[in-house]
Structures are given as structure tokens and as C-alpha cells.
Amino acid sequence: MHPKSLDAFRTPDYRVFSAGPYFNVDLPYEVKWHRQHLKTLKKHAKKPRLFFKARPGADNNERHFQEHVIESIPFHEQMLRENTERLATIRSLVRRGAYKKLVRISRTMGGVPEYFVYDKRSKKFFFVAMHLSEERRRWIHIVQDVHKLCAVQILT
Predict the structure, then answer these.
(1) How far apart are CA 102 and CA 106, in angstroms?
(2) With contact defined as beta carbons under 8 Å apart, do 38 and 80 qualify?
(3) Predicted model pTM
(4) What pLDDT does 1 receive?
(5) How far apart are CA 43 and CA 34, in angstroms?
(6) What are the sequence ranges of the domains in the chain?
(7) Per-residue pLDDT at 57
(8) CA-CA distance, 65 to 48, in Å (whole number)?
(9) DSSP-derived pairing of the beta strands 115-119 and 14-18
């Protein structure tokens, strides 16, 4: 099957995702980091003296405390929620080892294709690239030909 556009995959048989948020970022690390940082922020919110002790001599301590601790907690909670949801989604579709390899390749080489597509019937996944750059060609070669992790469809 050689479709001409991405619309061929926007059917009940496939799930289509933008690939960047899933493969340009190490989601397990991000979830762990935000969870730990949120724990620290909540500890500082309960005991502000710990925050002030960690930053001796800072100007406008109260303003910094408000900005860096109180106002940033909702942001980090949202980031943790989004990244946890993304990680759960991608782990339900791609086995852990393949995901880790794809992330490592994507972060070192760049050039992740625009879309990630999961075929519900065959339970396999592939990427769809629309615009080819030199980076993206190398990424496709490494993922498809060298490691044989998945297929990559190129739409022209």
C-alpha cells in the first residue's frame, strides 16, 4: 500500500500521532524528573525556610519563593500528568526496548518523521515522513535498515 496522503491512515484501523512529543523526549526520564521536582517543591511550600536556606543572600526572597515554588507547582503537575499519559500511551503500543532504542536514535541523530502510526489490526507500528531532510534520511536508514525496528512510509 502506497498512500498519497496521511488521510489514508485516519481511519478506525489506525491510530495516528505526531511523533515529536513521543520520540524527541525521553519520557521515562521526564516523568521521573518532574515527580522528584514536584516533591521538592511541595516540601518547600510546606517549609519555606528550606527554600530560603538553599538560596542564601538572594534578593527579594519572598518574590522568588512565590514564583519558584508556589506558582510553579501547577505547571509541574500538568507536565507530569501530560508526560505520564504520553508514556502510558506509547508503552501500550510499543515494547519497552524498541521505544528506548527509538528515543536514543532520535535524540542523538534528530530527524524524527512527522507522524507515528499504529496499525490496530496487525498490532504493528510505523512512521510516516512527509518532508525529507538529510537528517531524516539518516534517521530512516538507521531505524528501518540497520536496526530493523519498524517501517517508514514516505509520502510525496
Answers:
(1) 6
(2) yes
(3) 0.82
(4) 58
(5) 14
(6) 6-154
(7) 64
(8) 8
(9) antiparallel
